[in-house]
Amino acid sequence: MQTINPKDLPISKLFGHLTGAVGPRPIAFASTIDTQGNVNLAPFSFFNVFGANPPILVFSPSRSGRDNSTKNTLDNVLEVPETTINIVDYAMVQQMSLASTTYPKGVNEFAKAGLTELASETIQPPRVAESPVQFECKVIEVKPLGTEGGAGNLVICEIVKIHIKDDVLDTNGSIDPLKIDQVARMGGNWYSRANKGLFEVPKPIAKLGIGIDQIPESIRLSTVLTGNDLGMLGNVEQLPTPEEISDFVDETPEILKLVQMGDLKKLHIKAKEYLVEQNVNNAWKVLLAKL
Question: What is the DSSP letter of 62?
């Protein structure tokens, strides 16, 4: 057995041990707003419920271990002490992951992740319409836990309104754990689907993904591709070149035949198969072959 003094480890290594050991962790998908009205949406797995009377949720946006910068979420709640906390289900996990990309301040992650803003009733930040449970919260305290990279900041929130979708309730009006289909964070690329078990979601690329808002409408409005599919497609830095697409089609008789037939739905089905295999580049080549 290893015995470790946390002070002897680099922050990145210590973070890996902590997040690998303490899990699965629920995910707070937090929407905030600054004084200029810019909306931000970001997920945090340092999160839980800490009381029912009053109802308290706490999450922690940590300082960057690389450059000690603070997250837009933290800056926003210090300016406007309100947040919505939206529960993440499996159907939106790829979009949630895409929203964790470090886009510049002022970029709306709702648009980048292809999620829908839903007006709150008591606070300014919008809710995530796709989320099965949405909490409107007043921030009652922000407690810094340190000043160096990796330090947490406890955002202590009181719930002032709860919204629960009917389709996750059982016949008694309680939340059904099978219907809500929650996901939780593990270490590295690993997640846990509460009613199924472990699965992987590759971390967003280090550079900025194009986002779902930059996906052509004919793809974005596909009847075949899901939000998770679009989340994977939006997490690329650049699209394949026309030459790469042409070479791929010429070398793949099945795709060439579908292109010649002009069968858009079957092309989307084939792209989805590549996405299941985590082959996002080939999925893009299939989808763009028809454009």
Answer: P
